[in-house]
Structures are given as C-alpha cells and as structure tokens.
Design brief:
With 276 residues, the protein is mostly helical. It contains 15 helices and no strands. It has a single domain, classed as UbiA prenyltransferase (Tetracycline Repressor, domain 2, Orthogonal Bundle), CATH 1.10.357. Helix 2 crosses helix 8 and helix 9 packs antiparallel against helix 15. The radius of gyration is 19 Å and the shape is globular.
C-alpha cells in the first residue's frame, strides 16, 4: 500500500481531472490517444515529483507527517529513488509521443524544475512557492501544447498560478514547526508569521479583483462571473476573515485544503463561462 500512498493519489486524481477538464475546454475530447498519453505522462511526472519531495522532506515529515511511507519506515530512501527515476523516465518518454513541444515542457522543463524545487528552491523564501505555482500553471499550457492551442490555456494557467501561490504560502504557515526543525527558510520563518499572513490576505484580495478581469474584458460570460463570485470569491473572503481572526495551525490547514480543492471550481467557471 505504501507504494501507492507515497504517490499522493488525491493529488494525482486532481492532476488527471485538470487534464480532462482542460481537454474538454479545448474541445478535443475525441482525441483519446493524445488524452491518454497526457494523463499517463502527467500522472507519472507528478508522482515522481511527489516522491522526490518526500525524500528531501524526510526530516520535516518526521515531525509534520510521521505516517508518510518514508518517515514511518515503510519504504527506504533507496527504493524511493529507484521508483522516482522510472516514473520520471516514463513520463518524459510518454510526452515524446505527444509532440516535441510537449516533450520540452514535460521532460526538459518540468522534471528539472521538480528536482530543483525539492533540492534547492523549497527551503528558500518565496522562490519555492513561485516554483510550485509555475508548475501548476505550466500543466495547463502542457495540455494546450499537446493540441497545438497554447493561447487558449493562458488565462487558465494565470489563474492557477495565482491560486496556487496563495495556497503554498498558507501551507508554509501550517508547516512552520517542522520547517523550523529542518532549518528551512520559508517566508514565515524569514519574515515572521504576521508579515506572511498579511501577504496572504493581500494576495487573496488581489486575486478576488483580478479573477473578475476575464469577464470585464469580455473573454468569459456571466456564467463565469457567477461561478467565480459564489464559488471562489465569497469563500476566499470568508477564509481571509477567518485567517485574520484565528491565525492558528488548524485554520491554516483548513484554508490550504479549501484552496487545493477549489481550483476545480475555477476550471468549471472557465469551461461553462466560455463565449462562443
């Protein structure tokens, strides 16, 4: 079971849904061969990224998540390294069969960025958060490249980047205790909890304003507007108020989980809010 747990199946399911929804958004669902390659390559590369993240987070996870396969001893670091090597290789090979552009994004950009993130960027203030956000936005561009329609995915990528950046900083707030033990230099540990929390609140307000721009510019219709207002902006306001009133680990955990799941509301807004 630990061979599956270390892959973080929920994260992989979300990645799969994002690929399927983006493909549907582009109107390419009939291209089942390309879609299958996209799903498999995204799953394997993301799975490899999750494993290498667990390897470098081993000491932190002994405190924050001791039940994970590596800190619990269910899997050795050597086994994990072999596992991630084959996953990265498989994902890169699968992307090669899609297109050269897809291979460049998956094999030459995504895999090195995932490795650099876990090895270097993650423990640096802000740059690690930006790297994760960049990777999620790039996932939508990857699907666009597979169907030779990158331009149509740029708004999706931008919204995913902003939403993920907020979540990643909140996650740093949640993980402060373990990060401090590992001498990580995340924003809360470098700037302090209060300044980081103020940044999160600022980014939430900025996102609430910016996610209305696609409607204001006529890129998406009123369906997009209402889904965004009710499904994203109102919950963001509620959670911003909650963070302001109760800046504790339990609140951070709830907010980052909401942000992790609510990105699919954003995808629904983009899909149903298209102007045809």
């Amino acid at each position: 079971m630990h061979w599956l747990t270390i892959l973080r199946p929920l994260n992989l399911l979300q990645a799969t849904l994002a690929v399927v929804l983006t493909t549907a958004f582009l109107g390419e669902m009939e291209q089942t061969g390309v879609l299958t390659l996209l799903i498999l390559s995204v799953i394997t590369i993301n799975a490899g990224g999750n494993i290498i993240n667990d390897i470098y987070d081993l000491e932190i996870d002994r405190i924050n998540r001791p039940e994970r396969p590596l800190p619990s001893g269910a899997m050795s670091v050597k086994q994990a390294r072999i596992y991630l090597f084959f996953l990265f290789a498989a994902g890169s090979l699968l992307s090669w069969f899609i297109s050269l552009e897809a291979f460049i994004i998956a094999g030459l950009i995504s895999v090195p960025t995932l490795i650099a993130y876990s090895a270097c960027f993650k423990r640096q203030p802000l740059i690690g958060n930006l790297a994760v956000s960049f990777m999620l936005g790039l996932a939508f561009i990857y699907v666009g490249a597979a169907f030779d329609n990158i331009q149509a995915t740029l708004v999706m990528a931008a919204l995913a980047f902003g939403f993920t950046l907020i979540r990643e900083i909140v996650k740093d707030l949640e993980d402060m205790d373990g990060d401090a033990q590992d001498q990580a230099r995340t924003l809360p540990l470098v700037w302090g909890e209060n300044k980081t929390l103020n940044l999160v609140l600022f980014l939430m307000v900025a996102f609430i304003i910016l996610d209305l721009l696609p409607y204001a510019l006529g890129v998406y219709n009123q369906v997009y507007l209402w889904i965004v207002i009710l499904g994203i902006n109102l919950p963001l306001l509620v959670f911003a108020f909650t963070l302001w009133k109760q800046p504790i680990k339990k609140t951070y955990s709830r907010v980052q989980l909401f942000l992790k799941l609510d990105i699919f509301v954003g995808l629904a807004a983009l899909y149903f809010g298209q102007t045809f």
